[in-house]
Structures are given as C-alpha cells and as structure tokens.
Design brief:
It is built from 17 helices and 34 strands. The protein is of the alpha+beta class. Helix 5 crosses helix 7, helix 11 crosses helix 15 and helix 12 packs antiparallel against helix 14.
Length: 748
C-alpha cells in the first residue's frame, strides 16, 4: 500500500485528474487492496489532507487538475484567475493562478482574449513558482437570471425564483448543493438546454437582509467590488507620499469650504470666492489631486480603469479607489492638509467666467458643511463671510446661466435613509436647495474652464458629450405633443430654451409633468469621448468633467492631461511607485476605447443604483399592501400602464386585465389607453387612486389595481381569480402568491 505522502505526491504530479481508480492503477493495487485504499482515502479526507470526489482527488488547499476558474485580474496582459467554486469555509484565501495563453494549433482556434469575470475550464498545475493554468474552453457567462431565491413547490421540486423583475419564469434547480428554501443563491446552468436546470454555486444568505439589495445589484451587473492585494498594497504606499510646499501653491490660509450631503462618504471638491472690488469675484475650485496618488499603469490605476466610477448604494459604496485614498488621504477633510488640483478663475459682474489658471496646491479645508446647514445659515441671515461671498458670486453665475438658457428639468430624486441596524428608516424625495445650485454652478464653471484650457494647448480632452435630440426622437415628441394641442415645428433650430419656453406655457402642474417627462424621453444619453460635440442640456460648446476624480475615471484623465499641458509634474517619488502623473502614451493612443469603456461602466452603475432603490422602495411598501395611494401614470403600454406613488416613487404595473370588463385600445402616439365602450382614458400624467396589490422586495416590482369611488377594486376582466398558493415569505400580495413565478412548462 502507498503511504499518505506517496499519494499526495502522485496527486500533485499527475498530468490528469486522479481518482481512486487511477491511484490503484498507478500503485498496482488489486482486490482487497482497493478496499483498503478506499478506507485510506476516506481517512485522508477526514484528516484534511485531500479534497474532491472519488473520481478526482486533489491536495487539500490545492486546486483540482481540471476545474472552472474565474478571471479576477489582468496583470500586464496576463490573466489571473481563482477557482470559481472555492468553498466558503475553506482555510485561507483561494489560490491565484496565472493563465497561460493557449495558441491555436492545426485545425484549432486560439483562445479568445480573456477579460475580468470570464469563466474558463482549465487544466491546472502547481510549480515551484506557484499555480499556473492551461485554458481548455471559455465558458458562457453567468446571466443575470441565475441569481434568485430557492422555492419548493408542492411536489418537493426546487425552483430558482428570479430577482430581476424583467425575468418572468423560474428555473428548475437540478442541484441544490446544500442550499435551503428561502435562501438567496447564485446558480449556473448544468447543460445546454434550459430543461436541464441549474445548480447552486454560492449561497448569499437571507434575501431580505439589509445588505442583500445592494449585493443583488453588484452580482447582477457584474460590478467589481474586491480590490486585488497588489492595488491595496500600492495604495498604502501612495498614502505615505509627502506634500511639499516647495512644489505646490500654498493655499492653506484661504478659507476654502466643502459643501456636501450630510452622509457624504468622500469629499472631492471645495470652493471659495471673494469680491474683486469692481462688482465681480475671484474664485477658487479646489479638487482632490488624485493623479498625484494614482499613477498611470500602476495597480490602482488598472483597477480604477476597470471600475470606471464609484457606485453608491444606500447601505454601502463600491469605491473606484481603495478606501485609504477615497475616504481618507484624497478626501478634502476639515483641518487636514490635502493635495489639490486648483482652478482659479474670475467672475465678471455679468457672470462670465474668465482668466482660468490651474495649479497644484496644498489646501486646508476650513469647514465641511452639509447642504442643509449652509442653506439654513444663509436663510437666517447670519451666515459667515465665506458663505455670503459664495452666494454673492453664485448670483452672478445665475444671471449668466439664465442668458445661456440650459435645459431646466426639475425631476424628483428619491433618498433612502437607513437606521442603525441597516433597516429602512424613511424614503423621501430629496429636497432641492439653493445650496445645491451654488455648488453645481461652481463645478460647471470649473469643468468648462478645464475643457477650454486643454483646447488652448491642443491637448487631449475627455469631453462630457450630450448631443442634441435625434430626429426620430423629435418626431415622436412632436406626435405626442400634438395629442395635447401643443406644436413642435421641426424646421426650426432645436435648443434647450425651446423646451424651457414650452414648459413655461403649461400652467397645469400635472400636464407640465407629462410634458417634462416627454421632453426627457426625447433626450440623448450623455457619454464620454475625445471628440467634442458640445453639451446640449447645459447649452455649452465645450464641457469636460474635472471635479470628481475620486469617483470618476474620466476626471482623473482630465487631471493628467492638465498636468502635461501646463507643466504640473511633481518630483519623482522616493518609494516604489510608478513614475509620472500625466497621461500615459497608451491613453493618448486609445482614448476612444478608454472613454467607451468608462461610459459603459457609468451606465452599469446607474442601472445598479436604480435597481437597488426600487428594491428598497418595494421592501418599504411590503407592509402596506392593500392600502390606497395617490399615484400618477408614468407610462402606457398595450398590456397596461405604469404608475408611481406621489412623493415616494416606485413604479408599479396596472395590468390591462384589471381595468374592467370592456376592451381598451392603446394609442401609442398619444400614450393613452381608451375604453372602447365608455371612453375611459388612462394617459401619462393622469393622477388617480390605486390600491397596492403586490410589493416584491427581491425584484423591486410593484403591482397596483384600480379602485372605484368607494375604494373597492374594479371587477377584473373575466372575473377569474388566479389559483391560490401557500403564502410566500418574500412577496406581499392580496392573494398570497409568493412571487411572479411561472415554472417552465407549467402555467400559473
């Protein structure tokens, strides 16, 4: 019989997966010896020496010879991967494997380029230098439908109820892998056919725990949220960089203030102004000098480029930079010396911004003030001089803004406030104050100054581009406005001011909201790019993002371009950090690809944040199912309409089958449903009372039903109630349906 050490050595050196059969063959074991080997392997597993199944063992703490790996990093072109299904209770961190590139041989195609998040079936090998992997096959990505809650039906079969409200079907779970009913899990398909079902690969936990809503969004949208050790180590070193007034403008004597939300996790920007004695103001916008700490090509930079931006959830932030930088060293905190990139400019009595100058400086923030506190001080009339000066300078900027006439769409923003335990304390619409507008207009002035300063040097610019509405969108808007007896002539020059005047002509508030949302739907989505196409919404010819480099990679690129264009390089650091703080050559050569990637990352973050807010709203309302709310219609489709609760938000569906027995016709151009016999109309912007019928905290979906003047539900078409099922734990509904489950092959 082989010894334990001999078996371990064989498992480590075997070129192929080795189970009981292969071990017996290698050592010439037969008959009773195989039974003894079986007991020995069982003992070794219980002793923690080996792991795996009878058909493929491997050394405990090691990696199976053939297994699925997940790429977690790209280091100088080499993919770094970890086991895709590493046990959560395994000791230590999962091993990191270097993926060796597979070349295309005769009749074989080369392996496609790997990127972070890819799953690859690989053959693994442990060498003196560490683990390496030889890719065999790139596997399909996990889809967003493969995260859900385990539910059991009457026959005992397990189903994966989706957490995405766009997915209507549940999926059969072929392998629970120890997961229990009611747990939130990640799963992967076990075959090519949907009928084969899925297997659970990770148990997340309680789906209604406060942390789960953001975790669902992170997993669903594939947001990178774990920093590689290399990036964290580099951040710790960068945080020790000394600040020398010999190479920076010293502005520590100036009372620069940072005005932010009360719950701000980082502080990118701070502002200052004082009268120039001639009716204008001298002004400063000080921005965290992130480019000093995050060097091109370094580990932090590579990770920040992948993330593109920070993602903000009610219970957490997924930062673009490690916290030692984002929440500490780079953050402009009161009374602390901080490295800053500063834009000096002058505001004329007419509100025009001129004479911009960019420097690297040391600043010491006089105060960190919440928007509400700054506004209260101004309203009481006892504000300190530094605040009064900011408001005085802002009034000049307001006058210039009015002359520019940018698009004015005041749309409500929902704010989720949590208690000490992470539960929902309140959901309300965020109040819009003059203090918000003060900071916003100072930031716009600095952003425009940065774009024009780089243009003056013919330097690369990462523009924030918002193109004018496309013709097809304008045609749709014209047709919609015609249903409201409003005209939009397409032959004229379309400007933001045109839309503003249109809104001012609407006196009815409900109708104004309709028009405002129609105008919003007609707008193009803003993006980042190296070619200037102006910013339609702000009515600006040149616009860049300069003011938030802690949370946006685009701003960091603008800072680096300014370093090069205006000779703001710093001395070489006397520590192990990449040299230079300007633009890298690869960024100059591939700026289009970089800006495309960060634009996509921005859209990903917006969707994740919106999904999470929807889940919080649904959870907040789940205890109020059956109540009647004042709502407003936000969208109309052939299958029904969507409505939102006034003052709270949270769009919910009103199925057309609940509107009564008559047939409703959908007028797409007018965005209205019309009853053919009664003439009853349901149009975008209409206000009506609806009863909340369902609130699904996992998907963020709401369902409403109409009520009559007495508050009673309207008799649904067909007068048929759906079959009753056992009360679900996760979805509150009037008939106790546990979710929007429609099991494959079975009608519900």
């Amino acid at each position: 019989m082989p010894s334990r050490e001999q078996i371990l050595e064989f498992l480590q050196t075997s070129d192929t997966p080795a189970g009981k059969r292969e071990i017996a063959k290698a050592f010439g074991l037969k008959g009773q010896e195989k039974i003894t080997l079986k007991r020995l392997l069982k003992d070794m597993a219980e002793e923690g020496l080996i792991d795996g199944k009878r058909t493929a063992y491997h050394r405990m703490g090691g990696v199976p010879k053939v297994t699925v790996l997940r790429v977690v990093d790209i280091d100088d072109g080499e993919a770094i991967a970890v086991p895709d299904n590493w046990p959560p209770d395994a000791p230590g961190e999962p091993p990191r494997l270097v993926m060796h590139e597979r070349k295309g041989g005769r009749g074989a195609k080369p392996m496609p380029a790997l990127k972070r998040g890819d799953r690859v079936l690989s053959r693994t090998e442990e060498t003196e230098r560490g683990w390496i992997a030889h890719p065999m096959k790139k596997l399909p990505a996990r889809t967003e439908g493969l995260m859900g809650v385990v539910e059991l039906d009457g026959s005992g079969k397990a189903w994966l109820a989706p957490v995405d409200k766009r997915i209507r079907n549940s999926t059969l779970i072929a392998d629970l892998a120890g997961a229990e009913e009611g747990q939130l899990v990640l799963a992967e398909r076990v075959g090519r056919s949907d009928r084969a079902g899925v297997k659970v690969v990770e148990v997340v936990g309680d789906p209604l725990a406060p942390k789960s809503f953001s975790l669902i969004a992170i997993a669903k949208h594939g947001i990178p949220h774990i920093f590689p050790e290399e990036a964290l180590s580099e951040a710790e070193r960068a945080a020790q960089l000394p600040l020398s007034p010999d190479h920076r403008e010293d502005l520590r004597h100036i009372p620069i203030v940072a005005i932010d939300p009360a719950d701000a996790r980082d502080h990118d920007d701070a502002i200052w102004a004082e009268p120039d004695g001639q009716g204008g103001y001298r002004a400063i916008v000080a921005i965290a000098d992130v480019s000093f700490y995050v060097r091109p090509g370094g580990a932090i930079d590579r990770e920040a480029r992948k993330r593109g931006n920070s993602v903000y959830f009610p219970d957490r932030v997924v930062p673009m930079l490690p916290e030692v930088l984002s929440a500490d060293v780079c953050s402009l905190k009161e009374g602390q010396d901080r490295a800053s990139m500063v834009c000096h400019f002058h505001i004329s009595p007419e509100g025009k911004v001129g004479k911009p100058r960019f420097t690297r400086a040391i600043v010491r923030i006089a105060h960190n003030i919440a928007y509400e506190d700054a506004q209260t001080a101004i309203d009481k009339g006892d504000a300190p001089e530094y605040l009064s000066n900011l408001w005085g300078a802002w009034k000049l900027l307001v006058a210039a803004r009015a002359a520019r006439d940018p698009l004015e769409l005041e749309l409500p923003e929902r704010r989720v406030m949590l208690d000490d335990k992470g539960g929902i304390a309140e959901i309300a619409v965020r109040e819009r104050l003059d203090a918000h507008r003060v900071v916003e207009d100072f930031m716009i002035a600095a952003n425009v100054s940065a774009a024009k300063a780089l243009e003056a040097k013919t330097a690369p610019v990462v523009y924030r581009v918002h193109e004018p509405p496309a013709r097809e969108k304008l045609i749709a808007l014209r047709d919609y406005l015609a249903t409201m007896d409003m005209k939009l002539a397409l032959g004229q020059v379309i400007t933001p001011g045109l839309f503003n005047r249109m809104l001012k002509d609407v006196s009815d508030e409900a109708e104004k909201l309709q028009v405002m949302e129609a105008v919003l739907r007609s707008q193009m989505q803003a993006y980042y790019g190296p070619a200037n196409a102006g910013h339609f919404g702000l009515a600006l010819g040149s616009y860049a993002h300069f003011t938030s480099p802690i949370r946006r990679y685009a701003d960091l690129l603008v800072h680096r371009a300014l370093v090069d264009a205006y000779g703001l390089e710093q001395p070489k650091p006397k520590m192990d950090l990449p040299e230079g703080t300007g633009l890298a050559d690869r960024d100059r050569q591939s700026l289009q690809q970089v800006t495309d990637a960060i634009s996509q990352a921005e859209r990903r973050a917006m969707e994740a944040e919106r999904d999470t807010i929807d889940r919080y709203v649904a959870a907040w309302l789940s205890s109020r199912v059956g109540e009647i709310f004042d709502t407003r219609i936000t969208g109309v489709q052939g299958f029904g309409f969507f409505a939102t609760i006034m003052g709270l938000g949270g769009d919910g569906l009103v199925p057309i089958s609940t509107l009564g027995a008559e047939h409703f016709r959908h007028d797409e151009a007018a965005q209205v449903l019309v009853g053919e016999s009664s003439g009853t109309r349901y149009a975008v912007g209409d206000r009506l009372k609806l009863k909340l019928a369902e609130a699904n905290a996992l998907t963020g979906a709401l369902k409403f039903v109409p009520v009559d003047s007495d508050g009673m539900e309207i008799e649904p078409r067909g007068n048929r109630a759906p079959p009753r099922r056992k009360q679900g734990k996760y979805v509150a509904g009037k008939r106790g349906r546990p979710s929007n489950i429609r099991h494959q092959g079975r009608r519900r």
